[in-house]
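Example S7 (structure tokens).
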């Protein structure tokens, strides 16, 4: 079953057309990146997939079903991790199953596994204000992993981080993706980030947002940071830059 199908999606807000004729197909386990200028509708498309909004016209299915509302099969990771400052890291990560009334035995092993996977073992009793920006994003990622979603929707999750922390988080995300093999739709303004992370990069036009071009990233996995200086990497970057400039 295809993870995501967008067929002629159009989204308007009054007289403003945000998205026009979006056609998109994403395979299970695929990692795609959406690139485009500010205001081109990338976040709007993510909101439609998440079920926060409905398209004005066209058809959208996630694993064969139309998303009428948010659901646990789709985890959304925003630029800000939106942690509860009064809760310790353990309680932030396990918030969803506790809210659902699940017994601790039902989620404890998975919670510890995901906390370890994102490198936060030993920080379970800390509060968010005791962590750096990158570590807070790790908490948000662990919380989403514990939901066991089929689809990750990531809206510039590393955009507010410094360059060194951003690279570290990109490597962590690739490690998590290699381990879990979940479907990921990743929004970014950073061409290097898109190429480094994704299997496929889609370039969107200025508003109204359309899919302008599609790039298959056939660089080998697992990806390493030194790949950023690779000739093939830079050739892809040049081609994508031309599309964005035009």
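Recovered sequence:
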């Amino acid at each position: 079953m295809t993870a995501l199908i967008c067929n002629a999606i159009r989204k308007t807000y009054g007289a403003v057309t945000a998205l026009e004729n979006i056609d998109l197909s994403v395979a299970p386990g695929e990692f795609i990146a959406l690139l485009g200028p500010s205001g081109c509708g990338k976040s709007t498309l993510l909101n439609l997939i998440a079920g926060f909004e409905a398209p004005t016209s066209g058809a959208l299915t996630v694993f064969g079903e139309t998303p009428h509302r948010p659901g646990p099969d789709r985890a959304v990771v925003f630029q800000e991790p939106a942690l509860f400052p009064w809760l310790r890291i353990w309680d932030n990560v396990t918030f969803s199953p506790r809210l659902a009334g699940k017994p601790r035995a039902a989620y404890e092993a998975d919670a510890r596994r995901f906390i370890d996977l994102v490198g936060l073992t030993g920080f379970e009793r800390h509060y968010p204000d005791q962590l750096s920006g990158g570590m807070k994003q790790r908490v948000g990622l662990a919380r989403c992993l514990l939901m066991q979603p089929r689809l990750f929707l990531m809206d510039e999750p590393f955009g507010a981080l410094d360059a060194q922390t951003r690279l570290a988080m990109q490597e962590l995300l690739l490690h998590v993706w290699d381990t879990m093999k979940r479907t990921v739709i990743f929004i970014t303004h950073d061409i290097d980030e898109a190429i480094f992370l994704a299997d496929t990069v889609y370039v969107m036009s200025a508003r109204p947002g359309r899919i302008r071009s599609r790039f298959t990233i056939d660089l080998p996995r697992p990806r390493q940071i030194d790949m950023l200086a690779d000739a093939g990497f830079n050739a892809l970057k040049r081609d994508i830059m031309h599309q964005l400039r035009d």
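Notes on this example. The mean pLDDT is 93.
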